[in-house]
Amino acid sequence: MNKQMFINKVNEIGVNKLLMQAIRTEDDIGAVLRIHLLSEQLSEAWICAACDADNFFGEGNYSVRINCSDKFKLARNLGVPDALYSVLKMINSIRNNLAHGSGHNLISDESIDKLVNLLKSFQLENPADAWKIDDPMLVKSKDGSTITEYSIYDENTPNRLKLFICFAFLMSRLAFYLEIETLALK
Does residue 135 lie within any of the structural domains? Predict the structure, then answer.
């Protein structure tokens, strides 16, 4: 695994911008699509780094198109831990339900519960990784004071924000799994 290539690929994605758009939107569809896009691009970064092939998917007439589900499988076959692969599949399922469903209950409580349980099942032994999925997410003002607090178990936290928390937690798991101190949070 070429860790530096993984970091570079993740940085190219523009994770921060998409994450900020996902957390700021009040539109469940926008949040799901952004998190799904980030999940797919994170898988692509993993695949490139695992194969040590920066241009694995090619460009232009030589680009290789692989559906998202197969990208997740390929990433799993190239070392993404099973629990994290299951999280990626669940995010894909949420996106597919959104695209093909009735539009009711876009991000279900059941989906969030499954994501949380999958993420909790992936235990890391790294003592530096003190973040727990049930830690609150604090939204702060520019001066550093807390504006509001969201929690994965708070029924008042919208599910689109819970999905955001799960994705951020997924990224932290990948970073600590690869023993990377910072991952695209520039």
Answer: yes
Length of the chain: 186
Distance CA 27, CA 97 (A): 16
Binning pLDDT at 50, 70 and 90, where does residue 44 land?
very high
Question: Is residue 182 assigned to a domain?
Answer: no
- Compute the Cα dihedral for 132, 135, 140, 143 and give only its sign: negative
In a domain, 41, yes or no: yes
- The pLDDT value given to residue 178: 80
The domain tally of the chain equals 1
Residue 185 CB partners (closer than 8 Å, separation 6+):
15, 16
Cβ contacts of 103 within 8 Å, gap of 6 or more: none
- pLDDT digit string (tens) for 86-142? 999 999 998 988 877 655 567 888 999 999 888 887 766 655 555 677 777 777 667
Distance CA 67, CA 136 (A): 34
**DSSP H or E stretch at residue 150:** strand 146-150
